[in-house]
Structure formats: C-alpha cells, structure tokens
Design a protein that fits this description.
Keywords: Cell membrane, Membrane, Plasmid, Transmembrane, Transmembrane helix, Transport
Subcellular location: Cell membrane
Strand content: under 5%
Low-confidence stretches: none
Radius of gyration: 18 Å
Distance between the termini: 32 Å
Number of strands: 0
GO molecular function: transmembrane transporter activity
Order of helices and strands: HHHHH
Structural class: mainly alpha
InterPro entries: EmrE-like, Small_drug/metabolite_transptr, Small_multidrug_res
Oligomer: single chain
Number of helices: 5
Membrane topology: Multi-pass membrane protein
Helix content: over 70%
C-alpha cells in the first residue's frame, strides 16, 4: 500500500472513530437529562472533546464536506439505533428504512472519495506551484 493510500485509509479509520465518539456523545447528552446528571454530563464532555479531536485529524486528509457528512451520518444512525437500547425510545420500521438510506449515503460517499493515485499526484504537483506563484 502506498503512502497516500495508507494515509487515506488511516484518515477514514479516524473518521470512523470520530463517528463512534459522536454516538457516545449523543447518547451521553441524552442520559445527562439536560446536563443535570453529573456523571453523564462529564462523559458527554469527554466524548465531545474526543469526537472533535478525531474529526479534526480525519479532515486533514478527507474533504470537509464529505468528512462532516459521514461523521454526522454515523452519529445520527448510531444514536438512533442505540437510543432504544439505553433509553425508553422506539425505533419503527419506517425510521429503520430511512436510517438505512443514511447508511447507504455514507457508503457511497466513501466509495466516491478521491483515492486514485493520479488525482493525488496531480494535486500534490499543483499545490506547491500555486504557493510559489503566490509568492509564498
């Protein structure tokens, strides 16, 4: 695996981790009861910091629009799927179908990510040339 492919794979793994932290954040905010439960509130703060850190690392490589959409999708689907496990919530068939649509969108965003070596090489060549012409 080339360095660029390895970097992209690591970024996507970091984005997956950020999405997992986002699920933890959403669920702990729900459990905090409006930040009135100290333990849940502290857990929410920890997950909040972790999700922002992991997202920011992933966005060094992944386009912001794609990364944010995937991160939000993972968080939304995870919170909706696990809400009934941890809280007195319902998840009906129609909601499940629309969550599946979100999952499909996340998968298609990953598949559409710029991973071809030619695109990465061309961008790497253009970036320094643009900076040089700008006098940087």
């Amino acid at each position: 695996m080339s360095s660029n492919n390895s970097s992209a794979a690591n970024a996507w793994l970091m984005l997956l981790l950020a999405g997992t932290f986002e699920i933890g954040y959403a669920l702990s905010v729900g459990g905090s009861n409006g930040f009135t439960q100290l333990t849940w509130s502290l857990v929410a703060v920890v997950f909040f910091l972790l999700t922002l850190w992991a997202l920011s690392v992933a966005l060094k490589t992944i386009d912001v629009g794609t990364g944010y959409a995937v991160w939000a999708g993972i968080g939304a689907v995870g919170a909706a799927a696990l809400g009934p496990v941890f809280f007195d919530e319902q998840l009906n068939l129609v909601q499940s179908v629309w969550l599946a649509v979100i999952i499909a969108g996340v998968v298609w965003l990953k598949l559409a990510d710029k991973t071809s070596g030619a695109d990465d090489t061309q961008a790497a060549v253009e970036r320094p040339q643009a900076a040089q012409s700008a006098g940087v």
